[in-house]
Amino acid sequence: MQDCIFCKIVKGEVPCDKVHEDEDILVFRDINPQAPVHLLIIPKKHYNSIVDMTETDAALAGHMVNTAARLAVASGVAGKGFRLVTNSGSEGGQTVPHMHFHVLGGRQLSGELG
Ligand code: 5GP
Ligand code: ZN
């Protein structure tokens, strides 16, 4: 996806504050954090949203969820609690059409997204 900002981050064409990288995923800090800890977990492969992931991608999806939990622990927010979210489509509040999870923590969250 040529014009996708997250694909550009994966390719190193746009900088990011990287927290974790492996063969399949990249984790970096959100540029406009909504909480003291706000990480974005993205697959290196472009999917428009979680709707585009299928059973074939179950291992990748599971790896992203497990990495989210491990990084929540490493960031020190797992004890008090955190939120793992993915937005899909405009009514879901998705603004970047490259599938991603948000990890939000470090303050009291409430409401739709806290
Ligand atoms: P969405 O609204 O699609 O669920 O989440 C997109 C998130 O990506 C937003 O929280 C927004 O702040 C973040 N974001 C958008 N562009 C960039 C960028 O270039 N770098 C980083 N680090 N985050 C971005
Ligand atoms: Zn992309």
- Average pLDDT, all residues: 96
Distance between the termini: 31 Å
Give the tally of structural domains: 1
In the CATH hierarchy, what is the architecture at level 2? Answer: 2-Layer Sandwich
Total E-strand runs: 5
Largest β sheet strand count, sense and barrel closure: 5 strands, antiparallel
CATH topology: HIT family, subunit A
What is the name of the CATH class? Alpha Beta
Report the structural category.
Answer: alpha+beta
Ligand species: guanosine-5'-monophosphate, zinc ion
Q: Give the helix proportion (percent range).
A: 10-25%
Radius of gyration: 14 Å
CATH superfamily: HIT-like
Low-confidence stretches: none
Tell me, what's the shape?
Answer: globular
Helix-strand pattern, N to C?
A: HEEEHEE
Strand content: 15-25%
> What strand order characterises the main sheet?
1-2-3-5-4
Description:
The chain is of the alpha+beta class. It has a single domain, classed as HIT-like (HIT family, subunit A, 2-Layer Sandwich). The chain has helices spanning 5-11, 58-74; strands at 18-21, 25-29, 37-43, 82-85, 101-105. The protein has a five-stranded antiparallel β-sheet, covered by helices on one side. 24% of the residues are buried. The model has no long low-confidence stretch (mean pLDDT 96). The chain binds guanosine-5'-monophosphate and zinc ion (ZN). Residues 5, 14, 16, 28, 30-32, 40, 87, 93-96 line the site of guanosine-5'-monophosphate.
Short description:
The protein has 114 residues and is an alpha+beta fold. The chain contains 2 helices and 5 strands.
Index terms:
2 helices; 5-stranded antiparallel sheet; alpha+beta; binds zinc ion; 114 residues; HIT family, subunit A; binds guanosine-5'-monophosphate
